[in-house]
């Protein structure tokens, strides 16, 4: 890949970019020089969030705010960062806007908090994982990767490098590579190929564990995989 993903694939649209995780990812990628679009059901809110990110990064930052459908039309790399209870609804609404050849990176985790339960517990998903549910809802020709489920939104919104790995699961080699490239643009993050999309079941469940640990020990937990060669992170 070239210096920026945007050079190869156009802008990166973060759907749900006004939320905590989406905002943090957009902020970090804007700092890395990527062309970022904040997508939201509320276009005015998306524009306000984009303006806030420019205040943090600098007015030269390439950040715009749009409604979700417009964001899909303007980008070839899409990042879905919405609560699990909104995932299916958003994908169904955007089905006509998702173009063949684009890549969708799904960050969704089916936490029990979406139905009033604890955030440290998981919901059962018939398809096996939120990522596999997304795969069923995407139109033909849209490649899918699952990633960023275990990254702290609070730490992303800060200025310091992170200390964690991002495990990327995908059945599409190019989608996986693009996602790992974006992950590695966040200081302190190492990107790791986690294999097939079905492995997202395991990665998603780690999020609930990390939330429980973070609550118990008053921190922001992440994961690091040890014992692998540097080649594993390319």
User: How many structural domains?
Assistant: 1
Spell out the helices and strands N to C: HEHEHEHEHEHEHEHEH
- Report mean pLDDT, rounded to a whole number: 93
CATH architecture: 3-Layer(aba) Sandwich
Main beta sheet: 8 strands, mixed
How many strands appear in the DSSP assignment?
A: 8
- Rg is 16 Å
Q: Structural class of the secondary elements?
A: alpha/beta
CATH-defined topology: Rossmann fold
> What is the level 1 CATH name?
Alpha Beta
CATH superfamily: NAD(P)-binding Rossmann-like Domain
Low-confidence stretches: none
Shape: globular
Q: Taking strands numbered 1, 2, ... along the chain, how are they ordered across the largest sheet?
A: 3-2-1-4-5-6-7-8
DSSP summary: helix tally: 9
In whole angstroms, the N-to-C terminal distance is: 11 Å
Quote the beta fraction: 15-25%
């Amino acid at each position: 890949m070239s210096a920026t993903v945007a050079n190869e694939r156009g802008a990166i649209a973060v759907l749900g970019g006004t939320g905590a995780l989406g905002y943090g990812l957009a902020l970090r990628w804007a700092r890395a020089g990527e062309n970022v679009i904040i997508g939201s059901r509320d276009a005015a809110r998306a524009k306000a969030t984009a303006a806030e990110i420019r205040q943090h990064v600098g007015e030269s930052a390439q950040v715009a705010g749009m409604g979700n459908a417009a964001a899909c039309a303007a980008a070839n790399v899409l990042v879905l960062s919405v609560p699990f209870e909104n995932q299916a609804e958003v994908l169904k609404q955007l089905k006509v806007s998702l173009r063949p050849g684009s890549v969708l990176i799904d960050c969704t985790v089916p936490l029990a908090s979406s139905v009033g339960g604890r955030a440290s517990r998981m919901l059962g998903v018939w398809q096996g994982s939120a990522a596999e549910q997304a795969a069923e809802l995407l139109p033909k020709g849209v490649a899918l990767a699952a990633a960023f489920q275990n990254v702290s939104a609070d730490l992303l919104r800060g200025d310091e490098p992170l200390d964690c790995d991002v495990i990327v699961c995908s059945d599409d080699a190019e989608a996986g590579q693009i996602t790992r490239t974006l992950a590695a643009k966040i200081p302190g993050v190492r990107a790791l190929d986690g294999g097939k999309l079905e492995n997202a079941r395991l990665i998603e469940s780690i999020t609930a564990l990390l939330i429980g640990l973070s609550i118990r020990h008053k921190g922001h937990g992440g994961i690091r995989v040890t014992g692998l060669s540097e080649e594993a992170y390319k």
